[in-house]
Amino acid sequence: MGDVLAGFHAVWGFESDSVLIRYERGIRTPKLFQALGERRIPLAAVEEVTLTPGRRGTVVLRLRPRPGADPLVEAADGQLKEGSDPYRLVLPAERETLAEYYADELKGLLTASGPAERYLVAAPEAPLQFKAYDGKASFDGTSVQFRWSWTGASSAKWKAGDQSFAVAGLSGVEWRSPELFEGHLRLLSRDPGAGRSVQPDQDPASVVFGLGYGPVHESLPFAAAVLAAVRSRGPAPVAPAVSRRDPAGVAERIRHLGELHRAGLITDEEFAAKKAELLAEL
């Protein structure tokens, strides 16, 4: 079609095989939109187009993606608030006729429905990182790193030490919005023996959110990028990569272990074993 339709917070460009969504920047634009910047949605990834009345003299043009077509939507798992839905374009009511025209044009171009066999919408690109309540998460495209915060991490995570997870050893991710109770990001292992019964604050494969930590616009694109990388890998898992530690970090870790030991939170044997493990990784 080659035309554009400007609404609140975004501009949609209509092409013969896709919709290019460019999100605006500004204090009123949802931070998730600003973080996404721009997204190309192939029409093959769209199952339905709707136009409905909005609030306060507006109309809403919305695309409904096919299940499994977009890693961001799959990672969100229905937890996004309506105003943060990247597939909604809100327009003034006076543009309803124009919006209806584009909605009809798009409907005529849709050819697929049902679950998609692979992701059709590109995931956010690595490297990505965000700060959780109990640590810092980073993703370089091949592995996920969790580096624990000495002020927020549980003793169980301190005992386990900083974590590195190769993408090929993962089966997926579990994202629980920081805007909901017990928000967290958990990495799911391909090992069938690795269950999810442990609470996220005690699980070294999870980071927990909190007020100001792991916000949606940082943690959700992160989760989507990891999920897309996992799904693009082959079926054979590999052992998690082991990274060598920085000497200053090891010293800080041993000092904190000593504090846990003096407080009676870990035994003499646990302290000695973990100290030896950390020193061996230098």
From TrEMBL:
InterPro entries: DUF4429 (IPR027860), SHOCT (IPR018649)
SHOCT domain: residues covered: 252-279
Pfam (any one): DUF4429
Domain DUF4429, first and last residues per copy: 12-106, 137-226
Name by which UniProt lists this protein: DUF4429 domain-containing protein
